[in-house]
Amino acid sequence: MRKIKTLIVDDEPLARARIRKLLEGHDDTVVVGECKNGKEALRMIPDYKPDLVFLDIQMPDFTGFDVLSRSGVTNLPFIIFVTAFDQYALKAFDVHAVDYLLKPYDNERFNQALDHARQQIALKDQASLHKQMVDLLEAFSVKSAAAPLTIEVREKGRTLRFSVLDVYFMESRGNYVKLNLADQSFLLRQTLQSLESSLTGLPFLRIHRSVIINQNYLENCKYTGNNQYQFTLKNGRQLVSGRSFREEIENYLSDSGR
What we know:
Shape: elongated
Oligomer: single chain
CATH topology of the largest domain: Rossmann fold
Strand content: 25-35%
């Protein structure tokens, strides 16, 4: 269960203690901090990134409204205003507070306000998750459209189809590309450069001006000196990198943790 990160802002110690005590009865909340004035709140809201803030309106340095207007936070937390002055109620809802507690309040009223906040946080989480899923699907669609997952080659009058992910490495042969699978190879009428441009998002690495390897079939890689690396693939094939590709290879090795 995700905990609702809660910040308590009130200049009265007893008021802060009461809110903390009431929150102890709710397993889905966790108090990440307390502030005794607006200055502390301005520091802690961006640092702690709470989901919910119990915010006193009347404080010695800044009002609760001042805190919100000065915070500079793009995604503000949900706010439950707490005050002894009911004339602030209308303004509180003008700044989209989820609820408003007028001191003195009882436990039932506190729980009602917390329920309102809980519902709003749940809706926000669902919307955020939905957006993440949509973004992920869109990214996958773009990659799928750009990458030729299926390759067709002509072999002795037959058309053969296989996944580009089955290719261990590719070699340039002029206007052709030699596609080397685990134990067989085929010629594809296409240049290596044009094929490489369509492999975006797939696990291929160019190690030489005429060689691209599939990272999924890399057994090991070792530096042999003179700006060159030796790559050993899982089928036993060994390939030597071009000197001018050292930087790209080292970036790959660093990112992959090899």
